[in-house]
């Protein structure tokens, strides 16, 4: 697992939950909400899909770690690595 | 007190026989069935009425994902009705539009889906339960989804009235217009019931689910071979407004609401009560200020159950037996029972009779049950009504003993 793969995983989830969005030019350093039509319920969907598809739990107090693709990659990498070795 | 006259100025529908009134009507006149086999969880392929409208015509894909099937049906019908009415939302006060939808039930589909996913894939761990569950299952969901989609800010809610709900939604719209609570009412009924196996299983356990090797012949009201209900989905929403408003804007007027009545059996959870049904019909006639012989067409509720059809026929026979002018037909024989939408859809399929003078038949009536024999019962093929059709009476009854009757009159200025 690496950060680029994690960014793609998150983009794949967003493609499912926001199927009307164009995701070809998402800037990894910019907040997702500032470049896509995503609301708080959509972020709950991202959390739910990480849980369902990858067995990763994101505690409510850490939701802000998912605000951009870069922050997602930084935050989720150790969780994916822990999951891979578990 | 002089009540405002209320008229229908727009119709939007989706049914197993078409997604617009013209197509639906043509199929009814031609005698085509809209029932097919549909995969039902845990129960196999069962006869059902399935709609095939273009969901993305009026919704983003994200809206479809978050919302409900009932919401999609409602949004489709609302858009089509508004378009048909000629109303432009940008030119009217959106806070003066009310949304009143009849539902038989709501939330079964969404709850059943969540529970099944939890059991099938997630070892019953509730942390996988969707945060969308509550907004999907609140009872106002389909009406509320319309307001979100269209940006309407007037009142919205659903009317829970079992299978009398289609009429009940329209009646609610009429009442709110007369009370001045809104200037335009989007009123009717919707149903997504085919997506919940519990609905089918409940009818089956009750001995009231239709079974036939040919699905197109499964819904057969008044026939000796009838054995139960064909569950269907669908929706029909009307634009209702005060007559003077419709005339002021030069609207096309389909019909005037002449009268209505809702009453209760007060007797049983599921068994109908023909005395109360008869009473409901008579009180609706009184409300409309007409006599039975002035009714040209009775759109019957009959669902193809052995007992229910017979009971309704008693009520109709008692009221209209001596009319000499009244024809009776049945739309469920074509599309099955669209539950909360039934009253509204079935009425819509008959409204063109005001213009073309035709009365569609009752399908699959091959061997008339003598207990269901009625003067004027139309079967086999559509007929031209002598003298035309000027008044339609629409029956719609439901569980817990709720009866609704709505009477429309051809608009003649």
Question: Care to give the gist of this entry?
Answer:
Chain A is mainly α and 86 residues long.
Explain what the structure shows:
The complex is a heterodimer of chains A (86) and B (413). Chain A has helices at 3-17, 32-35, 40-54, 69-85. Chain A is mainly α and 86 residues long. Chain A is globular and about 30 Å long. Chain A starts with a helix and ends with a helix. Chain B is 33% helix and 22% strand. In chain B, helix 3 (69-85) crosses helix 6 (141-150) and helix 10 crosses helix 11 (306-320). The interface between A and B is small, with 12 and 11 residues.
Notable features of this structure?
heterodimer; A: about 90 residues; mainly alpha; Non-ribosomal Peptide Synthetase Peptidyl Carrier Protein, Chain A; about 60% helix; B: about 425 residues; alpha/beta; Peroxisomal Thiolase, Chain A, domain 1; 2 domains; ten-stranded mixed beta sheet; 14 helices; 15 strands
- N- to C-terminal distance of chain A: 14 Å
Note the gap between the termini of chain B. Answer: 21 Å
Alpha carbon gyration radius of chain A: 12 Å
Give the ordered list of helices and strands of chain A. Answer: HHHH
* Broad shape of chain B: globular
CATH homologous superfamily descriptor of chain A: ACP-like
CATH domain topology of chain A:
Non-ribosomal Peptide Synthetase Peptidyl Carrier Protein, Chain A
- Second CATH tier, the architecture of the largest domain in chain B: 3-Layer(aba) Sandwich
CATH superfamily of the largest domain in chain B: Thiolase/Chalcone synthase
Taken in chain order, the helices and strands of chain B follow as EHEEHHEHHHEHEHEEHEHEHEHHHEEEE
Based on Cα principal axes, name the global outline of chain A: globular
CATH architecture of chain A: Orthogonal Bundle
Low-confidence regions of chain A:
none
Helix/strand class of chain A: mainly alpha
- Work out the helix count of chain B: 14
Number of domains of chain B: 2
Return Rg of chain B in Å: 20 Å
Strand order of the largest sheet of chain B: 5-4-6-8-1-9-15-14-10-11
Count every beta strand of chain A, where a strand is a DSSP E run of 2 or more residues. Answer: 0
CATH topology of the largest domain in chain B: Peroxisomal Thiolase, Chain A, domain 1
CATH top level assignment of chain A: Mainly Alpha
